[in-house]
Amino acid sequence: MNKTVFALAIALAFGAVTTVQAQEAPMAPTAASAPAPAALNDAQIALIAYTAGVIDVTAAKQALKKSHNKDVRAFAEEMARDHAAVNVQALALCKKLGVTPADNATSQSLAKGAVAEQKTLAALKGAAYDKAYADNEVAFHNTVNGALTGTLIPATQNAELKSLLETGSKLFKEHQMHAEHLAQGLK
Fold it and tell me: What's the predicted TM-score (pTM) here?
């Protein structure tokens, strides 16, 4: 799966979230329409955010195994460290609040798309791998940032979870800029 296809898969997954959240008033069920799906709850949002972090840690670990480029490796180390740290905070908050992150179609779609992308990246070597990894990181962070600010943060009810997502959003934006800079420097 190339970066465009993976970005599209992520966008579709998060688009489903946006569509659910954008429903202003449920339509009456008719033969032509099913009932509107329920909005995501905090437990589902927590798992979507956690899944995004796990995806980036996994991608970073793959980059550290495959890449010999010092800039790519430094970026991957940053991704692994930062996303693992945010996920530790997220799990601690869930434990504190007595919330179990809840599986949902968006987190499943993200995980499935990531597995396919990791397989595609695994087949690449050298500069081709480095460029594909960097481009994927740009697309991934761009999509997750849009979902965080446009859907997940506004839909979150718990103030502590919302604060953690806002912190994560700032981090993801910094990562996106770093990924863009990295991708521009690779041929």
Answer: 0.80
